[in-house]
Hints:
The chain is an alpha/beta fold. The chain has three helices and seven strands; from the N terminus they run βααββββαββ. A hairpin with a 2-residue loop joins β6 and β7. The two termini are 29 Å apart.
Amino acid sequence: MSKVPITIEGADALRDELKHLKNVARPRITKAIAEARAHGDLKENAEYHAAKEEQGLSEARVRDIEAKLSNAQIIDVTALPKSDKVIFGATVVLLDIESEEETRYRIVGEDEADITQGMLSVASPIARAIIGKRESDEVEVQTPGGRKEFEILEVHYI
């Protein structure tokens, strides 16, 4: 499997979630299963079945995070030479040429993307269109909402 880019912050968030699942959630779920078993008949024990289902979901998430971290290419954008070129991890200020609205995005891995926080997936149409471009370049992007034109106003490596 090929490496998947992720920022340092994204990798840290996954590691924190993994630590929580293993050190907090797993023991809590194990205790809940033991308590439910103590209630007797497991066939009709809703507490037991709910705890087992939660255990399954939690363990699946642990495996998912471990796989993501093992396939991650962690990129520290602050260690890269400063440039006005848009790359993975860069923070970019775009001007929508039609509406004259400015928007700030940080280009991140797919698992880190959250458009409400200005975290734009590297696989999104806008990110694909601006990667490799420079400040003051204009790009045309086919978005789900239609064709848009942007000017790259600023590129930051923070």
